[in-house]
Amino acid sequence: MGDRTYDVVGIGNAVVDIISRVEDSFLTKHDLQKGFMQLIEEGAIAKLYDDMGPAIERSGGSAANTIAGIASFGAKTGFIGKVGGDEFGDIFRHDVRSLGVAFDTAPLPGDMGTGRCLVLVTPDGERTMSTFLGAGTGFQSSDLDKEMIEAAKIIFLEGYLYDQPEAKKAFHEAAEIAQAAGTKVALTLSDAFCVDRHREDFLKLVKQGADIVFANEKEATALYEVNSVDEAAQNLAADCELAILTRSEEGSMILASGYRVDVPAAWVEEVVDVTGAGDLYAAGFLYGLSTGEPLETCGKLGSLAAAEIISHIGARPEIELKTLLPGVLS
Amino acid sequence: MGDRTYDVVGIGNAVVDIISRVEDSFLTKHDLQKGFMQLIEEGAIAKLYDDMGPAIERSGGSAANTIAGIASFGAKTGFIGKVGGDEFGDIFRHDVRSLGVAFDTAPLPGDMGTGRCLVLVTPDGERTMSTFLGAGTGFQSSDLDKEMIEAAKIIFLEGYLYDQPEAKKAFHEAAEIAQAAGTKVALTLSDAFCVDRHREDFLKLVKQGADIVFANEKEATALYEVNSVDEAAQNLAADCELAILTRSEEGSMILASGYRVDVPAAWVEEVVDVTGAGDLYAAGFLYGLSTGEPLETCGKLGSLAAAEIISHIGARPEIELKTLLPGVLS
């Protein structure tokens, strides 16, 4: 992929996470499906927030978490996403830029605040998310930085963008710009419900537009409407150049033109909060891929980054991930 | 102290903490004195923030942390302090109210944002703070809720309020309202530099206005300009009805009308971040005191709450502190 300004450029929702611990009964009371993400309106998020206990705030957003992780490994990265002109926008911008990520998307003018996601962490470490997209609903094709995409080895797109028509259009346009420039297109399916809402388009994208696809078991089986991971894996392997199936504590499965690598999960003393596990797996994997490592090493880096993120609250690394490299790279 | 609506009402700066890990060299570079709090202006905080790595945001403020802790133990509490009309104000309000704390101070009108404190945590777990008071500079006597103060068993005031002339005036007025109503006045000296800036007034307050005084070793020795903790303790014991000297890992010393109780620190597996240690010690102590526990038990509750807070990032409890009670109360 030669000498490009950016190893990986991410495109996704700019979101600040508002994280709180809850009991399972809180999810039941608010009719929330454990482990999934739902989009909610401003009134509904205010109501849910009012009923939650004390929280901490931390930058989030799926692709943004991945890019933060790749930057923390030491690679050259950029991010494209829409914040508002509020304090949460300042937090989001600071947190990515302070990692060296190039981030210059103009904030949405007007009063619409930055997107926020209520992340409810149950005692088992599982997370259930309710997202108000806010200024993210203003994201459109004109926000795409064409030069940045063309100057990247890989662009990384989150499936969540599909939930807004304008963002979905931008998503496709970004993929076209990338293909024309010889930039690889990587995609995460994001969430099984999201896949369910946009199955046909995702299938088309997996077959034609994307070079690299990340999915967990629920997303992959939802995409092909099959009952087993093996069936989903066979389909994915047939449809894409490079597919990565993440399987929580069972590790990950890398499928590349008829060839399969299984990578174990990295050891974690205690699973505190699984938020960002998939995002950070993708970070480690794409860091490895963009710097020319073999696929097995890419998978190991993904496992290590995921292990770091689930050992604490929040989806941004608490250590410099490049400190993990000496144990993996020879 | 009879049957009152509130066990403890706190008055202090309403602040959101922006917490980040740094190396010691970062403090040196920015000329920050480790372990202390400095007030800075908006331009200076923006500059420091720009140079910091990724952060997490969490409600803070010294007296507010104490009140959150007391509420988490299960007592009836209120808080008086000034936020702005921004997102940080919403966070602050939500986080105290969701613990059941009565908090109705009107936000400052206009564009001034809520106070924020950059908390830099070094590898040894020590914290160094730079605070921009923001809307807190608009706090004045008219913000005092007289009925709330009169309906409290104890009011708890933070010394940091002394750094703004109008807030200092409100501080004294609150103490007068309390005294007239038979509400006990508790005070924390907050910070050795703060004591240094206002020594004469603090001395007067300790001798005449306050019933209960919390100080750490640095603050107590700064107040009396003495070199040893023992000298400071003798002075404090002579000057107040009830003084509590906190001594980090050496525990605390309770001095009450010629009578002294030493309480050991509670065991902590790893000191992650000492932010809020003094605030939460005061929470445990005041919870015990307002619910009629003997002084030694008050001190033990203080040690336990402090141990909880230093075992994680941030100055608000991550567990319900009332779960600590069965081990202490018989």
Describe, in plain words, how this protein is organized in 3D:
The structure is a homodimer of 330-residue chains. In chain A, 38% of the residues lie in helices and 22% in strands. With 330 residues, the first copy, chain A, is an alpha/beta fold. Chain A has a single domain, classed as Ribokinase (UDP-N-acetylmuramoyl-L-alanine:D-glutamate ligase), CATH 3.40.1190. In chain A, the strands form two sheets. The first copy, chain A, has a nine-stranded mixed beta sheet, with helices on both faces. Chain A has a five-stranded mixed beta sheet with strand order 3-8-7-2-4. In chain A, strand 12 and strand 13 form a beta hairpin. In chain A, helix 11 runs antiparallel to helix 12. The longest helix of chain A has 17 residues.
Task: Fill in the keyword field for this structure.
homodimer; 330 residues; alpha/beta; UDP-N-acetylmuramoyl-L-alanine:D-glutamate ligase; nine-stranded mixed sheet; five-stranded mixed sheet; 12 helices; globular
CATH architecture of chain A: 3-Layer(aba) Sandwich
**What is the number of helices of chain A?**
12
Output the structural class of chain A. alpha/beta
Largest sheet of chain A: 9 strands, mixed
> Stretches of chain A where pLDDT falls below 50 for ≥5 residues?
none
Order of helices and strands of chain A: EEHEHEHEHEEEHEHEHHEHHEEEHH
Oligomerization state: homodimer
Say which CATH homologous superfamily of chain A is assigned. Ribokinase
Q: For the residues shown, what is the average pLDDT of chain A?
A: 95
The separation of the N and C termini of chain A measures 22 Å
Largest beta sheet: strand ordering of chain A: 6-5-1-9-10-11-12-13-14
Dominant shape of chain A: globular
Radius of gyration of chain A: 18 Å
Domain module tally of chain A: 1
* Most extensive protein-chain contact, per-chain counts: A-B, 25 and 25 residues
